[in-house]
Design brief:
- The protein is elongated and about 55 Å long.
- It is built from three helices and no strands.
- Helices cover 77% and strands 0% of the residues.
- 2% of the residues are buried.
- The model has no long low-confidence stretch (mean pLDDT 83).
- Helix 1 packs antiparallel against helix 2.
- By secondary structure, the chain is mainly alpha-helical.
- Keywords: Membrane, Transmembrane, Transmembrane helix.
């Protein structure tokens, strides 16, 4: 599942970059591609533990 999200994010950024350099720029496609990329980053980084998680656990005790 993680690999699928990474592939979708790479495709979204590729589409956004392609639209940026094309003669007729479509802003809606760029916005959607960037939104898909940001959503994917949010999903992938949600599983990353915080640096301060150990400090917060020790402060509670």
């Amino acid at each position: 599942m993680k690999a699928l999200k990474i592939i979708i994010m790479i495709l979204a950024i590729s589409v956004a970059l392609y639209e940026q350099v094309s003669a007729e720029k479509n802003v809606y496609i760029m916005v959607i591609a960037i939104a898909v990329f940001m959503f994917g980053m949010m999903q992938l980084s949600a599983k990353t533990p915080s640096k301060n998680q150990d400090k917060e656990d020790n402060d509670v005790d």
